[in-house]
Amino acid sequence: MTEHDVSATGVAWDLADLYRGPDDPALHADLDAATERAAAFAAKYRGTVNVTDGPAPEWVAGALVALESLAEQTARPAIYAGLLHAADVRPPEHGALVALTQARGSEIRNRVLFFELEWIALADEPARRVIESAACRHYRHFLASLRRYRPHTLTEPEEKILEEKANTGSRAFSRLFDELLSSLLFEVELDGQRQALNESALLALLYDSCRTSRQAAAQALTAGLRANALVITSIFNTLVQDHAIDDRLRSYDDPMAARHLANEIDARTVEALMAAAEAGGGVVHDYYQLKRRLLGLDVLYDYDRYAPVFPDAPAVGWPACRELVLAAYADFSPAMSEVAARFFAERWIDAEPRDGKRGGAFSAATVASAHPYVLVNYTGRARDVMTVAHELGHGVHQYLARERGFLQMNTALTMAETASVFGEMLVFDRLRRQQHDAKAKLALLCGKIEDTFATVFRQIALTRFEQALHAARRQQGELAAARIGELWLQSNAAVYGDSVTLTGDYAWWWGYIPHFVHSPFYCYAYGFGELLVLALYEIYRREGAAFVPKYLDLLAAGGSEAPATLLERIGVDVSQPEFWQLGLRPIRAMVDEAAALAAALS
Hints:
By secondary structure, the protein is mainly alpha-helical. The chain has helices spanning 3-7, 25-45, 57-87, 92-121, 124-131, 140-147, 156-165, 170-183, 199-204, 211-227, 229-250, 257-263, 267-279, 282-295, 318-332, 334-345, 382-401, 413-434, 438-455, 457-476, 481-496, 515-518, 524-543, 547-556, 563-568, 579-601; strands at residues 186-190, 193-197, 349-350, 362-364, 373-375. The chain has a domain at 15-168: Butyryl-CoA Dehydrogenase, subunit A, domain 3 (Up-down Bundle), CATH 1.20.140.70. It contains 26 helices and 5 strands. The longest helix has 31 residues, at 57-87. It starts with a helix and ends with a helix.
């Protein structure tokens, strides 16, 4: 197998379906047209929504059609700029385009902000008549959902100031974080030679069979983060304090409250999820004690967690990854596989690791008139295959939901992570059915267990870290890197107990995780999605083909209905604390199976 096949060299996305390039006249024409349309929208609709008897439903429906088209035209340039920047943060013109589209977007959104504020301020009874009208049927959930923000919405002048200042405030610090991490090269010694690796290549070494390489990678990551601690710590302190100010101004009584509102979930359900995961955490200790024995180690350190249990696992070439993921999706639904195939065939995916490219992986929904784009950093590891399956789960979900229109195609994070984790499960299930060798089956099972731990127990720990971080920042003021590291170690130690020894180096590893910067309290959505998928997969096994159209309808609904409403249609009630046990049981079963396979092999 050649390096080209393994590393996905040359697999880069083609953004021409958005714009032909950063100098495409169509991009600037869209911004200019959106500015003019925003002014016309304001002239027509300002003062017509929050009126005594309420607006006519047909009037509101017409306004929403115009607003949706305008919002998409405004977002398209900014989304393009963001994707261009993610692919390579180094060219100054990429950053300049991000800044330009953010500033123009704020200007346009501020011109039409009045509509949302007037709708939120409208009295309940006339608002109810509009929501329940036939004319506004398509936008029913969007309209109802907006009104949930009434207690947290400020005056129009205040909202305009916050929107514009965010470009030189929170958004600027988020961009700085991305540019810093994407530009870093980490010095590591491998086989006696010094190498400078980007973040994606370095993190891939944590899955290496050679313990010396894993340890070297861990030390290099720590050294790079420590060398940039001044900037990274400043970014974290600033954004956590910005979050606190936002909560105070908007009357949120808890740092997680805004995220819960956006996710359309109540705090009690989230706490039940987290408490259930923590109560079931003994399975993590049991597994890592098993893994320590499989690896023949006296002590399992943090950099050993993802070591392969058998060192001869072959790399998975990019073509093989593509065929495997598409076949697994086709096992479930040929239609779903056909959508996923377009990402490969039409260059909607950027997979090669490059210097200057953003680390990690994501799927960007873009706009309803285009299609999603997926970014991964593929290095040929088995876990990279699961990452591709995960992001294509997002991508298929976003593609199917486009029919709901720009205002309602995006769903709550909890539902978004359900689609992505389901994609992983399909690939795992196919591999499991095909595998008959006990040794290979154990390696596959261990990989899935570790991915599940990372998605459930680790993400809950990250959420607990965020809770502690935000509380400490509010109570103690600006935090030193060492203090943040203490909070990080405390939260992670609760997951691993005495089964994994966390080194002093690990205390710095909060500093490269983008979710803390871009999307505070995002992480519990991963745990929600994983446990929900494990429960849904049991329903799928029970119902077979009858489950498929119900699941595809769930994806196609996008954000047009509340997650709880969508899940009720397939027999799921996430508000019940005992529901989460349905997802935890298969995890225990996998660990027990791994222990039995290991015993048989020994």
